Amino acid sequence: MYLISLGAGILVGIIYGLINVRSPAPPAIALVGLLGMLLGEQVVPVAKRMLEGAPITRAWFQSECQPKITGVPPAAKEGADAAAPDTRHG
Predict the structure, then answer these.
(1) 74 backbone φψ class: left, alpha, beta (φ>0; ψ -120 to 50)
(2) Rounded to an integer, what distance in angstroms lies between the CA atom of residue 16 and that of residue 63?
(3) pLDDT digit string (tens) for 13-44?
(4) Using 50, 70 and 90 to split pLDDT, how confident is the model at 60?
(5) Which residue among 2, 5, 24, 62 is the one 20 to 30 A from 83 at the CA level?
(6) Contact criterion met (CB below 8 Å) for 76 and 86
(7) How far apart are CA 46 and CA 65, in angstroms?
(8) Would the pTM of this model clear 0.70, i.e. be above it?
C-alpha cells in the first residue's frame, strides 16, 4: 500500500511539473484536486453496480456515494431519532 501511495504521489508530482504548478499547490488547486479524488473514488462503486446490472438510482447514489464525497452521513430515518436518547445538557 505504501508503494502504491508513493507511486501516486510521484505521478501527481510529474503532472504538477508538466502543468507548471509548484508544490505544494495553491489552496484552490489543491482543493479542486482533492474534490477530483473524492469523485474519482466513486467511479469504482458506480462501475461495479453497472457491471452487476443493478440500477443506479438517486437514492442509491445519495446513500452510498454522497456521504463519501461530502463527509456528511445520510439522513437518519424518521423513527431512528425518536429512539436515541437526548444527550444535550441545558
Answers:
(1) beta
(2) 34
(3) 888 889 887 777 678 877 888 888 888 889 99
(4) very high
(5) 62
(6) no
(7) 9
(8) no
